[in-house]
Amino acid sequence: MSISPTPQDFGLLTPAEVEQLSPSSGADALKAMLQWVNDFVAQPHPERDPQNPDSRAAVCPFMPGSLAKGLTWFTLPKEPVHSPDDVIRVTESYRGPLKSLPPTSGRDARFKTIIIVFPMVDAGMAPKFIDEVHERVAISYRSDGLMLGEFHSENQKHGSHNPQFYGLKSPVPAIAIRLMVALDHLFLAKSSGNLIEDLENLLAYTKSMSYMDPPPSEKVKEMLDSLWDDLKVLLKRAMEVPPDEQGPALE
Predict the structure, then answer these.
(1) What's the predicted TM-score (pTM) here?
(2) What is the distance between the alpha carbons of residues 241 and 130, in angstroms, rounded to a whole number?
(3) Which of 89, 97, 111, 187 could staple 66 via S-S, CB 3.0–4.6 A?
(4) What is the pLDDT of residues 64-106, one digit of tens each?
(5) Which residues contact 75 (CB under 8 A, 6 or more apart)?
């Protein structure tokens, strides 16, 4: 009889376990991140969507469900972090655990989230250690049906609804890894200015949604049909771009 892995097997802490940690630099960083997630990320904010200031949607609509279902975990790197490559290795080490931790099927599986906190990365180095790492590896994760979030106090990425709202500014540098969900079309279905990247994002999204368990709702299916139309347009445009201007080949 096989035994399912547990969060403890991978050094992952629940919010309750984070709150019980004895004071230390690592514990303080985890607690600061947890408080930010609870008090800001998982709460409504009037500046998130100025067109709907009374909306009760959280800054990240995904997080309240993840927290309520007990599927949000926090952790610190288990190895020294001296370079962006170290950040990549640490993040990669949680790709497998995220998938293998129960639940592995059904709607709740999509709420699993691991937040890796990097207190050893100071604010001045965060753009290089966090943003550039996200830039380098995000497409690889998306192709695997996963999403990465990058957070630090200097983050200049704005929200989908308000270009003046910077919802990724966290008290401590961190990277979050989770499974792709239907709402991610907000990030993956918009133009980045790079045809190949746009194609990769749309293909990753449609692939992930096609394997959704349980199957996609009719609303998501309609959205996928619309995205396939966008894909056709992008493919036509990509074919008109000279090969030496297309960037790296799709793998």
Answers:
(1) 0.85
(2) 31
(3) 111
(4) 999 999 999 999 999 999 999 999 999 999 999 999 999 998 8
(5) 10, 11, 12, 13, 94, 114, 115, 116, 117
